[in-house]
Amino acid sequence: MYAIKEAVIAKEHSHIPVDTTIFYMDMRTHGKDFEKYYDSAKNQHGVNFIRSRIYEVTEAVDGSGDAVIRYSTEDGQIGVEQFDLVVLSVGIEPGDSSKELAKLLHLKVNKFGFAELETLTGVNTSRDGVFAAGAFSGPRDIPETVIQASAAAGAASALLSEERGTLVSEKQYPPELQVAGDVIRTGVFICHCGVNIGSVVDVPAVVEYAKTLPTVVYATEKIYACSQDAQASIKALISEQKLNRVVVSSCSPRTHEPLFQETLREAGLNAHLFDMANIRDQCSWVHMNEPEQATEKAKDLTKLAIIRASMQQPVQPIFMAMNHAALVIGGGVAGMTSALSLADQGYEVHLVEKDKTLGGIAKRFSTGFRGEDVKAFVADLIESVSKHSNIKLHVGVGIKEVGGFLGSFTTTLDNGEQIAHGVALLTIGGQEYKPTEYLYGQDDRAMTQIEMDEALVNHDSKLENAQNYVFIQCVGSRNEENPYCSRTCCTKSVKLALKVKTKNPGANVFILYRDMRTYGYFEEDYELARRIGIIFVRYSENDKPVLTKEGDTLVVTVRDHVLDRPLEIETDILCLAAAIKAPEDGKKLSKWFKIPLNAEGFFLEAHMKLRPVDFSTNGVFMAGIAHSPKNMEEVVAQAKAAAGRAGVALSKEMVESAGLNAFVDKRKCTACGTCESICSAKAVSVDLVNRLAVVNDALCKGCGACASSCRCGAISLRGCTNEQIVQMLNSL
Amino acid sequence: MIMGECQVDVNQPDINVFKPKIAAFLCNWCSYAGADLAGVGRIQYPASIRTIRVPCSGRINPLYILKAMANGADGVLVSGCHPGDCHYISGNYVARRKFALIQSLLKHVGLEDDRVSFSWVSAAEGGRFAEVVKGVTERVTALGPNKGVFKVDDGGATDE
Hints:
The complex is a heterodimer of chains A (732) and B (160). Chain A is α/β, with parallel strands linked by helices and 732 residues long. Chain A folds into six domains: 2-83, FAD/NAD(P)-binding domain; 96-163, no CATH class; 186-311, Rossmann fold (3-Layer(aba) Sandwich), CATH 3.40.50; 325-430 and 582-653, FAD/NAD(P)-binding domain (3-Layer(bba) Sandwich), CATH 3.50.50.60; 434-579, 3-Layer(bba) Sandwich (FAD/NAD(P)-binding domain), CATH 3.50.50; 660-731, Alpha-Beta Plaits. In chain A, strands 12-11-10-16-27 form a five-stranded parallel beta sheet. In chain A, strands 18-25-19-20-21 form a five-stranded parallel beta sheet. The mean pLDDT of chain A is 95. Chain B is α/β, with parallel strands linked by helices. Chain B has one domain: 3-Layer(aba) Sandwich (Rossmann fold). The longest helix of chain B is centred in the middle third of the chain and has 18 residues, at 91-108.
């Protein structure tokens, strides 16, 4: 992924056309949405991919200083290419200080020097109370790292639950400046975001333009407005220039508004005397070839933000009740792990499972990827959740209705029971793709990986007597219908193949794959598999293996990538690596909790890298396969992470809402009731005695439907008033 | 300088090509997020829209659309969550109803249909957002600059 990203960004940032080629053996883009990025690099960005082995890299003899790469493709052809720059994708090894730390703490390390994690804990080192997150325990990408970090924090929180809050001191802010009636003094900060904005938008020109606008008394540029020093500078300038409104033109308010609002608070200004113009995600990044137009747009967007900010009045937060119970939906490994973690943190947990037993898909597994006894693990989990005094189980019952929001959800179950809770964790798992290809369902020798696993454990006669096995990877994955990788299947097939081959060394075992994605430490299993004689044949997407039946014999025909000839393999067992698909209940939960799904039906997180278990909707979290396919250890880590994040919400005494609610101008209201009838939150009602609409601040969600329907313009919305919108439109 | 030689820059941008300015109201939870996603995916689209972020598409008073046109915007785009997915449950239905009502008013004041557009874009639909903007820009460009609202060709008499 790193290589693909660098190739794509190099092309994007360069002023001259750049040709990029990636030489690789297997492309391991198994993370969520990584496959799509790989596809777009190939198809949209024109990155070349050459599956190859490198013989040597030497200096060109033409005196140019270029490098020459000599390589061989799969079919044995030798190629030679000259490049201006060669970038090596080097691996990751533990640093000296990490190894030193592991020694000091007496932590168990694996043979590579990385800290060894206890099986199926996600983050536990060999020492109680010492948790590891990120690359300390092995190569890890950003989403995985963030997940482990949240999981570790949650695990620590569980251990320290008795002491929670005892050492906490509340952050002190300077007293808030009273700005009512003051002359508006707006400060504008235009961000370069390195080259992300600066290479397309003429930032200095936008700064100069901002200086000409009404209320602006100060405007400047920043390389990275969100950096520590820029923040410090903004705070200093607020007091120096006596600014009472701030505008930042940079990236998306959806990610960075809270950061800048915090800066304002620290400078003594109300957090809402602020607006942001998105001149990156919605400007420089999408108008890369039109710098003049992007600059004009950036100027206009900045102007709109200045108008909105300058008209902003201070808004005070509203505090509402926080119910400190959690609802976990889905009683599989993810759900039970989250429930236990939250229960250990001291919170009341309701665990709902629609099936009549807990355990989810894990009930069908026996041995984990690190040799774990999964049956015992699952049984342990079930016993723990059943015994824990903080956990209330609701097994064999589904959900009928959900209402409310962070701090005050009410969920009604099928049996009529109502659960009041403050947060919700959605851990509903996924489903196995039922192949329509390869005679699955018609011939019982064609089976999925889970089925083969069960058959092996049950000593099924089909497998006891089998001599020839063929595994086909990517069945239902990485195609147009499901353009993603199911992540676990390459490792699973290798594990199954190793099992049958070691039991019966004389067996003929073939794995037909597109890319071998035995990532991280699973590479060792892949290496062992090759060494003991399991045959790996690579097939391409448009030349898939074909299954025919000759009499009663199953024959798989596949083009061998080395011989470049078709191979006909008579097989006794055909194991299909069936895709992992999104859960069917995703849509229902999406409507009930107002959370989005991605194009494939998996839950869409607030931020792919930095918030992998949060939804944008406050108070709702996710974990497990419902987020994306992953193996059991990864599920456990994510479940603990969700519990960690939910724990943060639950640890607050009250729910703080920004207070961007509707408000009524008494003088204009005619008490017609239009707002009351249109409000979906039942937050506004007409007081017939005083002939005035009254807003219930605790219920108001801040949608503005009332404000757009009011015939008199009497009801408006803080942060998005009628006047602000009209002024912004006037300025266009 | 050599006399007689003159370099003509054949790549001179055609400054006479009409570039519309379109006011775009995007709901924070879906459409604005979808637009951000288009940015993350570097999906390119015309630089014609000027975005105003609103909490919900239901926040849009139809009079804002008239205001935008009266101020010289060449087009307006209102984009919200897909039916059933509104973060505030029904705000997008409110928007759709208002939009349907204003369509006839806009026609009455002589505004071309294609100037004002309404769309559903979800937070996961970065590509679709780009397509929506491209489509809206094309349609508005074809109509030419905003000729002004309230110009009724029938001599001023009302239809009623």
